[in-house]
Amino acid sequence: MTEHRPWRGVLVATALPLNDDLSVNHDRYAEHCAWLVENGCDGVVPNGSLGEYQVLTPKERARVVETAVAAIGGQRVMPGVAAYGSAESRRWAEQAGEAGCRAVMLLPPNAYRADERSVVAHYAAVAEAGLPVVAYNNPIDTKVDLVPELLARLHGEGHIQAVKEFSGDVRRAYRIAELAPELDLLIGADDVLLELAVAGAKGWVAGYPNALPQASVELYHAAVDGDLDTARALYRQLHPLLRWDSRVEFVQAIKLSMDIVGRHGGPCRPPRVPLLPEQEAAVRAATEKAVAAGLA
């Protein structure tokens, strides 16, 4: 864990354990956060998309952050603070700071296709809460694309310190480095990990370590350290699972893999529905193959 840049390393976008009645199981969540750190991960990102933040009540969302902090310490917790309104996102950033967190992750405005002026104003408002902000570029889901030029502006104006890059366009890594060399690039999609690690990424906001933390951490460190023989072999073995992180059903897929390896993935809240039989079969087969290969 890098003290002044807590977003560096492997930070797991945590899945949220739910009971059969779809209530949050906070005890299981605390145990999960601790288990991830024990297995080599550097920290967690609660209240991201994988944590189903959109369908949590405000009370649940606040308690999820507090639970993670109590389990592993605030320096290891970087909550997502996305919301429809900038004032609400700022309140979530303030709550994160009060809970002891050292940074937050923020999507651009996602209630509509925001223009550049709105995006800059949004990040400026949340940065005023006083915690470092990691931008999250997910143009697939938000319809707002934080292109390298806009990221450079946000960084230059002091609103962001890093970016979780989920566009899938690995070419952007080099343009970002040219325009904003001090802006930390974080791998934002599991299935482009190797490509972005080679391009100079400083961290990984990760999905599949929820189920396979040790193998995932080994893959990340081999990739960023330039041990490409090790990295390529692991990447090839894990990619049938990693690619689910970029699919619509990523929450269901990762939770299913967690169940298969003996963790508690459990159900999802509506409107998410269970995987189709063929999807479940594909995830199950890939997970069982990874387990058989000693990767769990």
TrEMBL record:
Record InterPro entries: Aldolase_TIM, DapA-like
The keyword Lyase appears for this protein: yes
Keywords attached to this entry: Lyase
Gene3D superfamilies assigned: Aldolase class I
Short name of one Pfam family: DHDPS
Entry annotated with the keyword tRNA-binding: no
Cited CDD domains: DHDPS-like (cd00408)
Family in the record: Belongs to the DapA family.
Entry protein name: Dihydrodipicolinate synthase family protein
Species whose genome carries this gene: Streptomyces venetus
